[in-house]
Amino acid sequence: MFTIDKQLTKNFNMYLTYFDSNSWLIEFENKRILLDPWLVDHLVFGNLPWLFKGKKNQSYPIPENIDLILLSQGLEDHAHPPTLKQLDRNIPVVASPNAAKVVKELGYTQITTLTHGEAFNLENRIEIKALPGSPIGPTLVENAYIIKGLETHQSIYYEPHGYHSKSLQELASIDVIITPIISLKLPLVGAVIKGQESALKACQWLQPQYILSTAAGGDVSFEGLLISLIDEEGSVEKFQSLLEEKNLSTQAINPQSGRTLELKLNRRQPIVNN
């Protein structure tokens, strides 16, 4: 089971559950945040399944008692319409301007749009600050986020495509980074998901205790023309070696789909709950 009783979080540990692609359940400060959720149906871009289609090999129940939905981008692998249609429209949403348009059209009633540099306070427990994230096309830059507990001061940095703003160098250390570790490349285009080198730079800037791989993982089967062209580069194991070569104590984690990581930030080994 991946559901964690809120009473268990009184010891200030952090719980992260991965649901494939960029989909996460974040639990700390007695709050439950659903991040870029893809929980039901297939993943298709632009209603073009012949181009790209992702299918979950295992389904999971939609998490209950969600305090906030957090969306970094308006693309389908971040603001997944079939999933958002299944969730309660009264759950508060914090979103990039592009993602806010998606949930507004779906009838969500509590939407906070964050542009770069703006912050949102969740019941005086968690602060979410938007930073520049991934470029989508020639003019649009989506959101990355710093998610910080206001009592524990524990913090997460999330950027799902590996585009890390130089403004991160001005920040204090971050406990946990969620970002791609494996690069995905297309011929003539280059990296559409930046992994190894980009993630290493973020670790050097932020000195996290843990970095969790996202975007390229999970228990998912893909098909379509685009899949035949994508080339993967790197691995979590190789990245751990890079960290050690740079004398960084950060632990790289390849999260398993549907399993909850309990991160005890004063220790180096996370506990996996089946």
UniProtKB/TrEMBL annotation:
User: Which SUPFAM superfamilies does the record match to this protein?
Assistant: Metallo-hydrolase/oxidoreductase (SSF56281)
Membrane spanning stretches: none
| Gene3D superfamilies according to UniProt | Ribonuclease Z/Hydroxyacylglutathione hydrolase-like (3.60.15.10)
The name on file for this protein is MBL fold metallo-hydrolase
Query: Where does this protein come from, organism-wise?
Result: Stanieria cyanosphaera (strain ATCC 29371 / PCC 7437)
